[in-house]
């Protein structure tokens, strides 16, 4: 039963990348080797599209250019099913690992590629591993100048790999104009602590009831839409496992993969969901 009397629509998003492209694996799998690894993105995207169709939900797919170039039919299918297509950069390189010139080239190249394949405008961007931090806030201006209307690249929490802990919890205008908006990943406050409740590994780590409670708090107490994300590989417990991963990386990546789909079904039933552009740009 839905506990959202205000009937707020939350944003449901998918980061379209394969298991071997995650930042945590970059010391073990080189980008030059990606083409030789077994891709599992296609069946996982098909499963996601079927699940969203079953629940009558439209979502936003932040898609790697590398994936789009190799699976253009998936990009077209995403758009044909009424979902928003957005950019996740070309090759999942964190903003903090790029110069401003390299970043500018990446975001323009990926936007053009996605638009050429899909025939629709690409308005949104999400940085690899939420890697816009205080050292690279210049990225917002670069995105605006490249024609993007919004970014969803900041996680307002403490984390060893990303985050701006004191960033705003909800959508804000980093360039002091209303033509470009940053939409942070969702958190809720518990006794002054920001609890991540926007998906990803935390959704697999926490029991479902806690995620559900936290999103309800955002909807009912903050009276704001929540933003949720996950990756196609999180539906895939049978994915190949690279050798040499640390215990922490293994824990974060593989924890409760077998529970993701059943939890997503509950989530899609318990709340109202929609596309980023239709929630935040209208």
Structure characterization notes:
The protein has a single domain, classed as Glycoside hydrolase/deacetylase (TIM Barrel, Alpha-Beta Barrel), CATH 3.20.20.370. It starts with 8 loop residues before the first strand and ends with a helix. The chain is built from ten helices and ten strands. The N terminus is likely disordered. With 282 residues, the protein is α/β, with parallel strands linked by helices. Strands 1, 2, 3, 9 and 10 form a five-stranded parallel sheet that branches. It has a three-stranded parallel sheet with strand order 4-5-6.
Could you give the topology of this structure?
Layout: E1 9-16, H1 41-55, E2 60-63, H2 65-70, H3 72-80, E3 84-87, H4 100-118, E4 124-125, H5 138-145, E5 150-151, E6 181-182, E7 187-190, E8 193-196, H6 201-205, H7 208-220, E9 227-230, H8 247-254, H9 260-270, E10 272-274, H10 276-280
Parallel strand pairs: 1-2, 1-9, 1-10, 2-3, 4-5, 5-6
Antiparallel strand pairs: 7-8
Helix pairs in contact: 4-5
Features:
282 residues, alpha/beta, TIM Barrel, 35% helix, globular
Going by CATH, the homologous superfamily would be Glycoside hydrolase/deacetylase
Task: Characterize the overall form.
Answer: globular
Can you tell me the residue ranges where pLDDT is under 50 for at least 5 consecutive residues? 1-5
Strand content: 5-15%
Structural class: alpha/beta
Q: What is the H/E order?
A: EHEHHEHEHEEEEHHEHHEH
Biggest sheet: strands, sense, closure?
Answer: 5 strands, parallel
Number of strands: 10
CATH topology-level fold name: TIM Barrel
Q: Report the average pLDDT across residues.
A: 94
Helix content: 25-40%
- Corresponding CATH architecture: Alpha-Beta Barrel
Helix count from the secondary structure assignment: 10
Q: What is the terminal-to-terminal distance?
A: 28 Å
Number of domains: 1
CATH class, named: Alpha Beta
Radius of gyration: 18 Å
């Amino acid at each position: 039963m839905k506990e959202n009397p205000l009937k707020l629509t939350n944003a449901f998003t998918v980061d379209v990348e394969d298991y071997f492209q995650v930042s945590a694996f970059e010391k073990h799998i080189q980008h030059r080797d990606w083409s030789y690894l077994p891709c599992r993105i296609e069946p996982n995207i098909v499963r996601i599209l079927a699940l969203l169709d079953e629940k009558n939900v439209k979502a936003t797919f932040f898609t790697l250019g590398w994936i789009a170039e190799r699976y253009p039919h998936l990009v077209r299918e995403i758009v044909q099913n009424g979902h928003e297509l957005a950019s996740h950069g070309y090759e999942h390189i964190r903003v903090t690992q790029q110069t401003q010139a390299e970043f500018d080239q990446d975001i323009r190249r990926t936007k053009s590629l996605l638009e050429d394949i899909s025939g629709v405008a690409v308005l949104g961007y999400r940085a690899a591993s939420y890697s816009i931090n205080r050292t690279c806030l210049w990225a917002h201006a670069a995105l605006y100048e490249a024609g993007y209307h919004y970014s969803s690249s900041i996680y307002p929490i403490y984390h060893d790999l990303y985050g701006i802990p004191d960033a705003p919890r909800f959508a804000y205008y980093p360039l002091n104009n209303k033509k470009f908006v940053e939409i942070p990943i969702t958190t809720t406050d518990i006794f002054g602590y920001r609890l991540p409740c926007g998906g990803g590994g935390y959704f697999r780590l926490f029991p479902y009831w806690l995620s559900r409670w936290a999103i309800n708090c955002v909807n009912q107490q903050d009276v704001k839409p929540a933003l949720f994300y996950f990756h196609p590989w999180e539906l895939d417990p049978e994915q190949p496992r690279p050798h040499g991963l640390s215990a922490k990386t293994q824990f974060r990546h593989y924890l409760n993969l077998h529970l993701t789909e059943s939890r997503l079904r509950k989530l899609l039933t318990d709340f109202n969901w929609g596309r980023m552009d239709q929630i935040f740009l209208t």
